[in-house]
User: Which sequence fits this backbone?
């Protein structure tokens, strides 16, 4: 049964900075490696049922087909024992050192093998975000020059984007080989660019097309002629573009829209942008994404600094929740909401560009695991609204089962039904399946 998913997440970003010399490991900075049991207890105390959570990729994935599952076995085993449903977050803004960065063309196929190995290791996991915020990851790494490859060109951006989205698509195929009823929650930043004056309109319109590129490719949505030329002019081939058109798994997806006060931008006459603050808001921008893709929606990230008065985050929670209800009342199939993250974060005031150790009071709790006012407000919100928000989404046909029911007859029947359709999908998407299983690498003598 699919019901409204009240969620939070453990912040697990791990991009590299300083030309690869330092890794910003948020699980380390927030002491999750030491306090993970307390973190899971806190999730339960809040009444949260779904947790955006993933093992640290750079610590687990040691090399091609080489893994250290020690920490993942402990943490995911405890999630199952607690009957908390993870939305498995497999790649969050970084890759292991041996991969290098997102310019590496070997990353997509290798990552798909990792995703399949994870699904085999934890077959009871049903919900996944294979690659988190694909657009932001490519933008910050290869266009802004902040993380990982730290490049600043359109060629680098398109290269990173096509590799990241291909990795996400191949990972979905790989997971479905193991778990045919898997559902994928694409946590993606929902953006909008406002023209400051008439001279800014052209650039704003261009950026308002670029913001869709990651999901256009992921969902096999044909881009405009302008975006097609942009992609081909900056490193994407015609065959690479058609890979995305031919390998869509849209029917297994929930469109996750992340929204922060920094997600709307003002485009200046010189083409540069700056944060505009909230102008349209979550409900308006999410409707734009829904009209484009027609998928069930989940509000997959938001937060705000607690502020000097101590109530700014609580007010933002109420505002975002009002936007969720507005989306629902407008008839759009919204299935969940997330305050991200469970605890405060570290160094996100510099977008992880600097290693200053600055604590950002954005969490439901502080780093001593004491609830902040927004944590108390979220706990109350969940208690008050849970019973009156059944999810009625005609787009989702596969039910979701909590860990305690994963071995039951109902879950088995759904998996069997999904498996009967898998052979047709594999025949249709043979190229992706071959890449996942290693046939493509074997043909090059690399397997």
Assistant:
């Amino acid at each position: 049964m699919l019901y409204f998913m009240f969620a939070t997440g453990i912040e697990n970003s791990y991009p590299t900075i300083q030309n690869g010399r330092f890794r910003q490991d948020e699980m380390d900075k927030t002491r999750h490696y030491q306090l993970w049991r307390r973190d899971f207890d806190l999730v339960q105390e809040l009444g949260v049922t779904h947790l955006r959570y993933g093992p640290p990729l750079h610590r687990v994935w040691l090399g091609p087909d080489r893994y250290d599952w020690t920490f993942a076995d402990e943490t995911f085993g405890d999630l199952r024992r607690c009957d908390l449903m993870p939305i498995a977050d497999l790649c969050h803004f970084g890759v292991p050192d041996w991969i290098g960065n997102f310019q590496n063309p070997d990353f997509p196929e290798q990552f798909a093998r990792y995703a399949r190995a994870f699904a085999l290791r934890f077959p009871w996991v049903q919900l996944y975000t294979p690659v988190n915020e694909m657009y932001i990851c490519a933008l910050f790494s290869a266009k802004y020059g902040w993380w990982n490859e730290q490049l600043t060109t359109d060629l680098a951006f398109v290269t990173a984007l096509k590799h990241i989205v291909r990795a996400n698509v191949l990972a979905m195929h790989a997971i479905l080989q193991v778990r045919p009823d898997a559902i994928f929650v694409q946590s993606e930043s929902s953006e909008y660019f406002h023209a400051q004056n008439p001279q800014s309109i052209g650039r704003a319109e261009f950026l308002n097309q670029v913001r869709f590129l990651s999901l256009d490719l992921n969902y096999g949505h044909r881009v405009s002629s302008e975006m097609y030329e942009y992609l081909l002019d900056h490193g994407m081939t015609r065959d690479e573009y058609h890979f995305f058109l031919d390998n869509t798994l849209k029917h297994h997806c929930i469109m996750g829209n992340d929204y922060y006060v920094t997600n709307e931008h003002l485009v200046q006459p010189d083409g540069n942008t700056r944060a505009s603050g909230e102008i349209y808001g979550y409900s308006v921008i999410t409707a734009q994404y829904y009209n484009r893709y027609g998928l069930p929606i989940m509000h997959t990230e938001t937060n705000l600094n607690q502020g000097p008065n101590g109530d700014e985050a609580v007010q933002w929670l109420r505002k975002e929740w009002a936007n969720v209800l507005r989306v629902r009342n407008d008839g759009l199939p919204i299935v969940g909401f997330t305050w991200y993250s469970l605890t405060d974060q570290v160094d996100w005031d510099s977008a992880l560009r600097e290693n200053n150790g600055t604590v950002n009071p954005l969490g439901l709790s502080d780093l001593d695991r004491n609830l902040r006012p927004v944590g108390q407000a979220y706990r109350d919100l969940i208690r008050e609204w849970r019973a009156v928000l059944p999810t009625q989404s005609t787009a989702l046909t596969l039910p979701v089962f909590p860990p305690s029911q994963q071995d039951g007859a109902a879950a088995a029947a759904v998996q069997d039904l999904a498996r009967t359709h898998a052979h047709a999908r594999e025949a249709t998407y043979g190229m992706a399946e071959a890449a996942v299983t290693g046939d493509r690498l074997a043909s090059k003598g690399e397997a």
Observations:
- The radius of gyration is 21 Å.
- The CA atoms of residues 299 and 337 lie 5 Å apart.
- Residues 393-397, 437-447 have pLDDT under 50 and may be disordered.
